Amino acid sequence: MSGNTLFSANLLLAYTAYLVGVASPGPSNLAIMSIAAHHGRKAALAFALGVISGSMFWATVATAGISAALIAWSQFIVAVKVFGGVYLLWLAFKSARTARGAQPAAAPRDAQAEPLKRLYTKGALLHLTNPKAILVWVSIVALSSNHVGPAHDAVVPGCAVIGMVVFSTYALVFSTATARAAYVRTRRVLEGCLAVVFGVAGIRLLAWSSR
Question: Which residue of 52, 56, 66, 178 has the fewest CB atoms within a 10 Å radius of its CB?
Answer without folding.
Answer: 178
